[in-house]
Write a structure and sequence with these properties.
four-stranded antiparallel sheet, mainly beta, five-stranded antiparallel sheet
């Protein structure tokens, strides 16, 4: 192996899975320095992302059980082997409020906050890589909320793909007036928070819904549903560009502008920005997809989804277009009260497949996942 030129060695190693590379760190100091170097971590990640075959796509799942008061994480193939070829992940943290809120997931990193539903008090924010079992706790932000609950904060997590820097954006609101009083950004490369100067592009125009768990990272931009608090009523999408660190507005189709904000949910569909609308009277969902990013004329309604009794929340879509949905489970059948189960719902046949992920309703989480070496350096 010593006679192999380094460029050839790199070409071999970047094709290997993360688990193998972690073992190979122990081969020699040379291999350790190579595998943990920022350039290799970046090259390895790009190699994985450029794989065209979606058959090997992974899903990260989380659920929380009141019985053992533990968060359970697992990886699953995004195909028919979801149940049979899953692997459990050891979760090294313990929430003080029962369950972490998952802010977002990007390039193998999971951003967690120990407040579950976005409470006003400052709580630890964690970046965790399940693949390498490393985590860091972010330093305390600069903008402190008042203790009279008049201020709340919202979080978003994503990546500046140009500089490959991972960032957490934090927006602090005055709850009474619905106005942003400050925005700050944590950068993993600098390991510090930066308060953005207050201006038209560094302050969201609309109020982002309290404790909003509906947020999507697409095209290098973190998106939230937002609405006006004063004057004429209306919904929109506020986005934060992770590269330029500015806010942008993305207009919704007219059919959704005047809809009650609580009936709307942001998600991804086929890599595109999408909005799911709940129709209470008809007990169904309609899905709107923005086919061309930031082109309001490209919004299309693709589905009208009639729900089955017992369905609670639509979480997302699988590679084959099936819905991930949580269903309520009666206490007669499980010992954990207020439990739900994750199912796959075929839109055409309307068949339901039990995916055997049980947990407290609201704690079940499913997101696309890519294994990476991020955080391994140093």
């Amino acid at each position: 192996m010593e006679n192999i030129p380094q460029e050839i060695l790199i070409e071999i190693l970047i094709r290997l899975p993360v688990k193998s590379l972690i073992r190979f760190i122990l081969v020699s100091k040379t291999w350790q320095c190579l595998i943990t170097s920022p350039n290799f971590i970046f090259t390895h990640l790009k190699k994985i992302q450029n794989q065209p075959n979606k058959k090997h796509s992974l899903l990260l799942c989380r659920h929380y059980s009141r019985n053992d008061q533990t968060e359970h994480y697992s990886l699953h193939p995004d195909n028919d082997d979801f149940v049979h070829k899953s692997s459990k992940i050891r979760f090294p943290l313990k929430s003080k409020v029962g369950c972490y809120r998952i802010v977002g997931c990007c390039n193998g990193l999971v951003c967690l906050c120990d407040d579950m539903f976005g409470t006003f008090r400052l709580k630890p924010i964690i970046l965790w890589n399940p693949s390498v079992q490393k985590s860091i706790e972010l330093p305390l932000p600069s903008i402190q909320p008042y203790w009279d609950r008049s201020r709340i904060f919202l979080l978003g997590f994503g990546c500046d793909f140009q500089g490959f820097d991972y960032k957490v954006v934090r927006i602090v609101y005055d709850r009474l007036y619905g106005l942003s009083v400050g925005v700050e950004v944590y950068s993993l490369s600098t390991k510090s928070w930066k308060v953005l100067a207050h201006g038209p592009q560094t302050c969201p125009r609309y109020y982002i819904t309290d404790f909003c768990l509906s947020q999507v990272f697409v095209n290098g931009v973190m998106h939230w549903l937002a609405h006006r608090r004063k004057g004429s009523f209306g919904n929109s999408i506020m986005g934060f560009d992770m590269k330029d660190e500015i806010f942008i507005e993305i207009f919704l189709p007219e059919a959704l502008v005047d809809e009650r904000a609580a009936n709307l949910c942001l998600m991804k569909h086929g890599g595109c920005l999408a909005v799911m609308k709940y129709n209470g009277y008809e007990n169904n969902y309609s899905l709107w997809v923005m086919k061309e990013y930031r082109n309001v004329e490209s919004w299309k309604r693709l589905y009208n989804i009639g729900l089955v009794e017992g369905m609670e929340n639509v979480i997302g879509f699988s590679n084959n277009g099936h819905l991930f949905v949580t269903m309520f489970v009666d206490e007669m059948f499980v010992s954990d009260p207020a439990s739900g189960v994750l199912v796959s719902f075929d839109l055409e046949s309307r068949k339901i497949k039990d995916l055997e992920i049980f947990g407290k309703l609201g704690s079940i989480y499913v997101e696309n996942f890519v294994e990476s070496l991020v955080l391994l350096e140093g």
